[in-house]
């Protein structure tokens, strides 16, 4: 039996059981609940010292205000855009994540979307399952010899670049943090956003959602793209303006899009859901058994280290940290 003074952890968003077992193995008291809305979370968060979540739970300032003993928020994944990190920081709550745990899964899903858009695979699948054997409507395009523009060449963007090069694509990248030496080692050409938009046959987005990146691929950017471009976003919803993208597809400037993330999830009402050249998936970038095991164990260990040993690794709200 755990000691009365044991720290309490609230786990939401279907963290894998191995992560829950890791927390309990450290002597922490763990309650597992489904995804909670902000109001319900605020009602329940009071006695907990840690909150562990994935991407669905929204941790707002009122939630943080309702958590007097909360010490750590752990995101089993990369981004923390579903957490009000500023409010947490003001309260002295440490926010931690697992930057590398989903990298391979997300890169592979990006390539799956890119190829699905290029070859119209989901549309052909539905057509054939419907009892029709036709090839003419599904004329695709090869990725071989094409230019892929990567917006954000961090961990995931780098892995996408390597996979694209295996398909003999030319890769250009826009990233203000990218050093010349890194680009040279990756055989990637550094360009600014305007040149990337002008040259790319495919564009893949791999930046966090911030005030600066929200709407980055909007009407103005899409108007500067190469005609017939195809857009892939497996990073965060809101970076690509969905209404502007829908209009560009309908106008024939953008040939197709592959989207795993949306401004609002679920994306009911998004104009993109009604467009045939658009391939969509329900935020599956990190949804592999291997990735979920890695991030569940890694975030559990981080939370335990902070609560029990005062050690903070991968703290995104530490001075100088970059989400």
Describe the protein in words.
The protein is of the alpha/beta class and 323 residues long. It has two domains: 115 residues, Rossmann fold, CATH 3.40.50.720; 178 residues, 3-Layer(aba) Sandwich (Rossmann fold), CATH 3.40.50. The chain is 35% helix and 15% strand. It contains twelve helices and twelve strands. The strands form two sheets. The chain has a seven-stranded parallel sheet with strand order 8-7-6-9-10-11-12, with helices on both faces. Helix 4 links the parallel strand 4 and strand 5. Helix 1 packs parallel to helix 12 and helix 5 packs across helix 7. The two termini are 38 Å apart. The C terminus is likely disordered.
Please write out the topology:
Blueprint: E1 8-11, H1 17-25, E2 29-32, H2 38-44, E3 50-53, H3 61-65, E4 72-75, H4 85-90, E5 94-96, H5 103-119, H6 121-129, E6 147-151, H7 155-166, E7 170-174, H8 180-186, E8 189-190, H9 193-199, E9 202-205, H10 219-223, E10 229-233, H11 242-250, E11 254-259, E12 278-280, H12 289-309
Helix pairs in contact: 1-12, 5-7
* CATH architecture heading of the largest domain: 3-Layer(aba) Sandwich
Strand order of the largest sheet: 8-7-6-9-10-11-12
Structural class based on helices, strands and sheet pairing:
alpha/beta
Largest sheet: 7 strands, parallel
Q: What is the CATH C-level name of the largest domain?
A: Alpha Beta
Radius of gyration: 21 Å
Gross morphology: globular
Give a brief rundown of this model:
With about 325 residues, the chain is of the alpha/beta class. It contains twelve helices and twelve strands.
């Amino acid at each position: 039996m755990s000691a009365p003074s044991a720290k309490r952890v609230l786990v939401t968003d279907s963290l894998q059981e191995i992560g829950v077992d890791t927390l309990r193995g450290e002597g922490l008291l763990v309650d597992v609940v489904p995804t909670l809305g902000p109001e319900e979370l605020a009602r329940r968060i009071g006695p907990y010292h840690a909150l562990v979540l994935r991407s669905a739970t929204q941790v707002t300032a009122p939630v943080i205000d309702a958590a007097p003993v909360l010490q750590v928020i752990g995101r089993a994944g990369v981004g923390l855009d579903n957490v009000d990190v500023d409010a947490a920081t003001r309260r002295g709550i440490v926010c931690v994540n697992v930057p590398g745990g989903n990298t391979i899964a997300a890169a592979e899903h990006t390539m799956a979307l890119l190829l699905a858009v290029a070859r119209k695979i989901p549309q052909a699948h539905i057509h054939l399952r419907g009892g029709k054997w036709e090839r003419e409507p599904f004329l695709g395009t090869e990725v071989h010899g094409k230019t892929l523009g990567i917006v954000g060449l961090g961990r995931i963007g780098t892995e996408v670049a390597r996979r694209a090069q295996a398909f003999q694509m030319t890769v250009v990248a826009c990233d203000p943090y990218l050093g010349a030496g890194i680009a040279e080692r990756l055989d990637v050409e550094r360009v600014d956003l305007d040149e990337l938009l002008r040259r790319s046959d495919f564009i893949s987005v791999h930046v966090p959602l911030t005030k600066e990146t929200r709407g980055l691929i909007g009407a103005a950017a899409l108007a500067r793209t190469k005609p017939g471009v195809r857009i892939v976003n497996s990073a965060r919803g809101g970076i690509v303006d969905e209404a502007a993208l829908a209009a560009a597809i309908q106008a024939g400037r953008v040939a197709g899009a592959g989207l795993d993330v949306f401004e609002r999830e679920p994306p009911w009402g998004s104009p993109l859901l009604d467009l045939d050249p658009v391939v969509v998936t329900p935020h599956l970038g990190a949804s592999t058994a291997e990735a979920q095991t890695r991030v569940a164990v890694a975030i559990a260990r981080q939370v335990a280290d902070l609560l029990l040993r005062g050690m903070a690794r991968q703290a995104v709200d530490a001075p100088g940290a970059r989400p």
